[in-house]
Amino acid sequence: MADVPGRSPATAATIRGAAAPELSRVALTRPRSYLRQSWDRFKRDRFALAALAVTVVIMLFSYGAPLISEFITHKSYSDQSLLRGLRPPFTDGYILGSDNLGRDILTRLAYGGRVSMTVALLAVASALAIGLPLGAIAGFYGRWIDSVIMRFVDIMLSIPGLFLLIFINTLFQVGWLGLSLVIASLSWMGLARLVRGEVLSLKHRDFIEAARVNGASDFRIIFLHMVPNVTPIIIVWATLAVPVFIIVEATLSFLGLGVRIPTPSWGNMLNEAQQFIARSWWLAFIPGFMIYITVLAINILGNGLRDALDPRLSE
Amino acid sequence: MATEVRATPQQSDGQSREVLLDVRDLVMFFPLTRGIILQRRVGWVQAVDHISFQVYKGETLGLVGESGCGKSTTGRAILQLYKPTSGEVIFKGTDLTKLSPGEMRKMRRYLQMIFQDPYASLNPRMTVGSIISEPMQIHNLVPKNQRNERVQELLETVGLNPYFANRYPHEFSGGQRQRIGIARALAADPEFIVADEPVSALDVSIQAQIINLLEELQEQFKLTYLFIAHDLSVVRHISDRVAVMYLGKIVELADRNSLYDDPLHPYTKALLSAVPIPDPVVEKKRERIILTGDVPSPINPPSGCRFHTRCPYAMDICSKVEPRFVDQGGGHYVACHLYPGCTP
Question: Where does the ABC transporter domain lie (chain B) (predicted)?
Answer without folding.
Answer: 21-272
